[in-house]
């Protein structure tokens, strides 16, 4: 019952002397309804793994599945549809639309898909992320932390089956980080969503069901029931 999986995933960059082995045959299943944190030193392959899982990058070899769908066989159009229908992204690099308000940015993916906004859930997300009085502002009128929380709200509001995050609490102060982690936890507990995030935040370990550690392109540890104190 995996919401997503990687099987013998290999990713190399460059050729010959300068080849970088970013992923050396990584196999991992993400069980539906679980919150997994991927941790490990800088350069260990975390972002590469996340990008391959989310279909934003293609592996050199190996297989990625979202639910029962093998991403290898999909063309661009099918891939875009899969992302829109099933995946929420909280990536730092994924900017908001500067001309739209926070509210419009948050509902944009649903508007594009022609889906209805669940107002109660949206209000709860916005409230928990402390964005209630910021909805009419454009990104340029928001702080960096608020922009990131808007990106998080946008990922959550459509309740996608799976949420991928690349450092979703990077750049956030301790209070906002806690709010983001707790709302991800709540998405899993209350809506049976699956969350997979790459993070350096040791506190993520106490919110996650499972922590997968990467080092030098390989999984070196895969543990459940950790707390923040176990990480540092
Ligand atoms: P992490 O997210 O754990 O910091 P990355 O997945 O970003 O690690 O990178 C893993 C390895 O792949 C690193 O050695 C990095 O320098 C290399 N790498 C990542 N992206 C590229 C790229 N586009 N071209 C060449 N090397 C890359
Ligand atoms: P297209 O080429 O059809 O415009 P894209 O690859 O640009 O498709 O993006 C399709 C969807 O994938 C976006 O709507 C977004 O949900 C997601 N996406 C693309 N790139 C990123 C990214 N860097 N970070 C997060 N999500 C992304």
From TrEMBL:
**Could you tell me which residue ranges the ABC transporter domain spans?**
4-232
Entry keyword tRNA processing: no
* Alphabetic keyword roster: ATP-binding, Nucleotide-binding, Transport
Q: Record keywords: ATP-binding included? A: yes
Recall the GO molecular function terms of this protein's record. ATP binding; ATP hydrolysis activity; transmembrane transporter activity
The Gene Ontology CC terms held by the record are: membrane protein complex; plasma membrane
Listed name of the protein: ABC transporter ATP-binding protein
Query: Could you tell me which species this protein originates from?
Result: Flexivirga aerilata
């Amino acid at each position: 019952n995996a919401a997503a999986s990687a099987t013998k995933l290999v990713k190399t960059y460059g050729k010959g002397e300068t080849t970088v082995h970013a992923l050396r045959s990584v196999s991992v299943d993400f069980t539906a309804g679980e919150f997994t944190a991927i941790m490990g030193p800088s350069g260990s392959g975390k972002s590469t793994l996340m990008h391959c899982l989310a279909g934003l990058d293609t592996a050199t070899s190996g297989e990625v599945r979202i639910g029962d769908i093998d991403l290898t066989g999909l063309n661009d159009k099918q891939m875009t549809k899969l992302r829109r229908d099933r995946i929420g992204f909280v990536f730092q690099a994924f900017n908001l639309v500067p001309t739209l308000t926070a509210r419009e940015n948050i509902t944009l993916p649903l508007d594009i898909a022609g889906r209805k906004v669940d107002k109660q859930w949206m209000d709860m997300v916005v409230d928990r992320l402390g964005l209630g009085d910021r909805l009419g502002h454009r990104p340029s009128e928001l702080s960096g932390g608020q922009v990131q929380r808007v990106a998080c709200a946008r990922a959550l509001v459509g309740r996608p089956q799976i949420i991928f995050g690349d450092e979703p609490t990077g750049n956030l102060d301790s209070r906002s980080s806690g709010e983001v982690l707790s709302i991800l936890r709540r998405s899993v507990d209350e809506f049976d969503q699956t969350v997979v995030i790459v993070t350096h935040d040791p506190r993520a370990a106490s919110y996650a069901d499972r922590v997968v550690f990467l080092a030098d392109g390989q999984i070196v540890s895969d543990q459940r029931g950790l707390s923040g104190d176990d990480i540092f």
